[in-house]
Amino acid sequence: MKQKFTSTIAGASIFISAIGLLSRGLGFIREMIFAKNFGLETAFDLYLVGAVLPITINSIILYIGQNYFVPGFQKLNSSDSEAAQKYYKQSFIVFVGAGIIISIILFLTSDIIIDLYMHLAPLESKATAKIIFRIFLLTIPFSAAISIFSALLQAVYEFKYPAISILFLNISIIILLVLFSEQLGVFIIPIGYVLGTSLQFFYLLIKSQKILALNLFATKNEFILSKSFISSSLITIILIESLSQLYSLFDRYFYADITSGGIAALNYAFIIWILPVTIFSLSLATAVFPIISQAISDYSQEQIEKIYNENISVNTFLFIPLAFILFFYGDTIIRILFERGKFVEESTTMTFNVLRYYSISLVFYSVYAVFNKIFYSLNKIKILLWITVAGLLIKLVLNFLLIDFKQNGLALGTSISYIFFFFATYFILNVNLKIKNRSLLMKDLVMHFTNCIICFLTARFIYSIFDINNIVLDATVILFFVCIYSLNSILLKHQSLIIFTRVIENLGFKNRIKAL
Question: Considering the domain boundaries, does residue 443 fall inside one?
Fold first, then answer.
């Protein structure tokens, strides 16, 4: 019997990557509509404040569901299908039950929670944020169920259904925004989230029912959780991922201390900043994870050092020029993506100032995204937890120290924290992996930074000749910068260009060929 394309690792990777790109594209369209309809208005700030805690909880639940359910189900299903079915029902009841309890507790304490973020805000603003918060609470039980449905489908290699279900969320929000934003204002966003999450739930319920029927009647024994899956390592991983989600919560706390529209500016700037990381660095991290894990298991020092150094070379080659572009030409990118409707020129200026502070950490965070996976390969997750806690404390302290700089100070605090993540993991990995060539990072940083300065000065000279403030010319200057940077790298025959080309081939064409 021929195996389905999306059930193979290569096929699933290609399919999920394609759906992921489509989802990001829809996400960007969604954000562009947000910008057009709401700009940096107070109403959008209130949405971001009201939404942050439920969305954070949903993200954590989805991650926990995958890591808790998949290994346990696969282990049981290989030897006892009846026990696997019991495990599935038990997990569903526990997760959804926990989601309902969390929603009820948050609903009852919503006044306290909103007042914590908006202690100096007018009562009307607090009331708006509280309504948004309470609407979002409806999504938590649905997300808990979705996490188990998705985990079940992934456990039986039906990767395509969870990937497709993600599209329902953005499509629902986009459609409702277009049809009802004038009538319902900012409230249409949480309503869209509830609708999208509900559609995800019913879609995955139908697909999972074909795999394994769900009987919701449970006996006492079915509430007893297996001790093997409540391990210290799983708890540590959950803590790491949960703590990593707290950055937005910390920033929202300072809602009353920053410029009106500052929270929205942080949101738009971060979306632009994180996009290249999600497209390339996380894909590279996913590809590196099994390879370096195998090299560590085989005690292959030469292979370990090669993978480690190539990660640094590829990321510095790609992300130093991207950081330059965001720092010097980010206003052009923001104008192209967002400046329309209520997102006016002043909105672009505020968002660009925030983006500049975020861009400082781009190259460091891109490398850290892969270092993070290497820590898991080395089974150094406790050290990673302490690094995460330290970085979070740095972020929190800097928020208080830099709040005089408003939203720019919050963005700078985030960047410094991310830079700390990089250097802490960099020095620890150098020791644990016994890296011999420790000068590579500095050489690549100096090399690519110098190249970028030359490109920037050349592009600026070309721009000064025309002396025209035109968005087409501004975009052309960015393209010119990229072309000069690439040409210089080719002429210098720097190894990072060769490595980058090979990585792209390995991530793309080779997997495609294997799948076919």
Answer: yes
Domain membership flag for residue 306: yes
Is the entire prediction scored with pTM above 0.85? no
User: What are the backbone dihedrals phi and psi of residue 434, each rounded to the nearest 5 degrees, phi first?
Assistant: 55, 50
φ and ψ of 245, to 5 deg = -85, 0
Q: Is residue 391 part of a domain?
A: yes
3-state secondary structure of 4: coil
Q: Are residues 226 and 268 in the same domain?
A: no
Residue 238 pLDDT class (50, 70, 90 cuts): confident
Q: Where are the alpha helices (DSSP H) in 78-159?
A: 81-108, 110-117, 123-137, 139-155
Tell me the CB-side half-sphere exposure of residue 363, using CA atoms within 13 A.
Answer: 24
Residues 6+ apart with CB under 8 A from 371: 311, 422, 425, 426, 429
Look at residues 123, 131, 114, 127 and name the one whose alpha carbon lies nearest to residue 255: 114
Paired tokens of 38:
């709401």
User: In this structure, are 178 and 306 located in the same domain?
Assistant: no
Helix axes 81-108, 110-117, angle to 10 degrees: 70
**Tens of pLDDT along 469-511?**
677 778 888 888 888 888 888 887 766 666 666 555 554 444 4
pLDDT tens digits, one per residue of 108-152: 999 999 988 887 788 898 999 999 999 999 999 999 999 999 888
| 266-to-26, 350, 414, 489, 515 alpha-carbon distances in Å | 20, 9, 11, 33, 41
Torsion over CA of 132, 134, 139 and 144, rounded to 10 degrees?
140
- Distance between CA 149 and CA 350 in Å, rounded? 41
Domain assignment present for 217 = yes
Predicted confidence (pLDDT) per residue in 188-207, tens digit: 999 999 999 999 999 999 99
Helix (DSSP H) and strand (DSSP E) numbers for the chain: 21, 0
What percent of the chain is modeled with pLDDT above 70? Answer: 82
3-state SS class at 447: helix
Q: Mean pLDDT, the chain, as a whole number? A: 82
* Residues 184 and 331 placed together within one structural domain of the fold: no
Query: In this structure, are residues 58 and 141 in contact, taking their beta carbons and an 8 Å threshold?
Result: no
Q: What letter represents residue 430's amino acid?
A: N
Distance between CA atoms of residues 384 and 390, nearest Å: 10
Question: How far is Cα 335 from Cα 469, in angstroms, rounded to an integer?
Answer: 13
Give the residue numbers spanning the domain of 457: 259-515
Q: How does pLDDT run across 491-501, given as a tens digit for each residue? A: 877 666 666 66
Are 197 and 101 contained in the same domain? yes
Domain count, the chain: 2
Q: How many CA atoms lie within 13 A of 34 on its CB side?
A: 26
